[in-house]
Amino acid sequence: MHICHIVFRFDIGGLENGIVNILNCLPSAGYQHSILCLSDYNPEFFGRIQADGVTIHTLNKAPGKDIGYLKRLYDLLRELRPDIVHTRNLNTLECQAIAWLAGVPVRIHGEHGWDSEAARTRRKPALIRKLFSPFISRYVALSAETERYLTERVGISPKRIERICNGVDISRFQPRRPATQAPLAEETWVIGSIGRLAKVKNHQLLIRAFAQLLDKAGSRSDRLRLTIVGDGPCRQQLVAQVKSLNIEARVSLPGASENIPDVMSSLSLYVQPSFAEGISNTILESMASGLAVISTDVGGARELVEPGFNGEITANDNVEELTEALWQYIEDPQRLRVQGTNSRFRAEQNFSLATMAERYHRLYQGQSAAAIRNRRHDHNFGRT
């Protein structure tokens, strides 16, 4: 079965990392994969794919309204003749029409979440999704929120939607300490967040809450550190914020890292302060690493974090609530150990890569079989 995965750019990111995991975990003997990039790709990131025979193609779409790439896409699909096209998010949606014109029998579209609340609530994106819906065989929603969006805002029948959450490599991400060891036995306690330094990730909120936590902790503040791992357009703004709060000695912004498991193993608590998320890969990775998680109440956070069991949920962009949630762990460090153990259990039971891959395998096989049945029916109908 030949599947073409269409993305805007294949580079470091949660959506793209999900594709890598799918390709690496599906049965290699049963699949051939091609990645089609509307713009370009990162060769080093492409190197993370371990599956055999995966090809990657670029359509070199120019910025703005470049429709010439659609002809190149059509020609490429006619050449590759895939069984399935799988697009992701709004910026690849128009490729569904081209796949239909090119005669691709199965056309799947995934919705992974939004970069802002405005992107979720604006009317125009919902209308565009409705316009292209007749070309789509099946939808994949990564969270209950995106499933509700498709049914309630776009008007897609629930029967056409499959909800498949991301998975995490539970063998690669491991708890660093035995379950019986208290998490605050170390001299230093590290609060951490990992992600692109962009406005939507709202690391400014975490820095403000950490500054308030230091004031509240008094003498215990000597043991507290904050590290925000990643790079992006907001880096200088965050550096300036840390300096203005006079907490440079307690806050680290080391840049991007190629070894996230090691970063996770250095943390005592994980915080996701985003304005918007889908199903966060870094929350899943922190759970597999045996960490309690604090997340803002966005996207699929509540599908991953059960308040009081493996972490806490705070209101979006509310510094007082986030500070209080952090303080509760300072007051009762035992909660970190218990909730961290629960996080690992939850990741193992519900969010393993094997579980995710099996769901995609059933989706691809089922849709392909349905397409074959439809072709046979149409052929028989034509003969009669």
Automatic annotation (TrEMBL):
One of its GO terms (biological process) is carbohydrate derivative metabolic process. It comes from Marinobacterium aestuarii. NCBIfam families: stp2 (TIGR03088). SUPFAM superfamilies: UDP-Glycosyltransferase/glycogen phosphorylase. GO terms for molecular function: glycosyltransferase activity. This is Sugar transferase. Residues 12-172 form the Glycosyltransferase subfamily 4-like N-terminal domain. Residues 183-343 form the Glycosyl transferase family domain. The lineage of its organism: Bacteria, Pseudomonadati, Pseudomonadota, Gammaproteobacteria, Oceanospirillales. It comes from the Bacteria. InterPro entries: Glyco_trans_1, Glyco_trans_4-like_N, Sugar_tfrase_PEP-CTERM_Stp2.
